[in-house]
Amino acid sequence: MAKTSAVEKNNHRRAMVKQYAARRARLKAIIMDQKVPLEERFRASIQLAELPRNSAKVRIRNRCEVTGRPRGYYRKLKMSRIALRDLGSFGHIPGVVKSSW
After folding, report:
1. With 80 as the cut, is the pLDDT of residue 98 above it?
2. Which residues pair with 80 in a beta bridge?
């Protein structure tokens, strides 16, 4: 199991990303628009920089839903390789069978 504080920090980041998503998208659209005057684009970039860093989507870490492990994460299943193997061995995941030959 991962540290509870690390998992909660990541959950807090997810909430902040959701909270600031519209504001960040609006400011980024202004910055990328070549038709907007340079002063306004610069002002928008400063406003974007003043937003909390944890509101950026790239700061979110993919973590296992079962254990909170940050590495060996399968996006499709939202769990780590170790949790997948354990649950698959116990027969808790439909269609997954531990191979042997």
Report:
1. no
2. 73
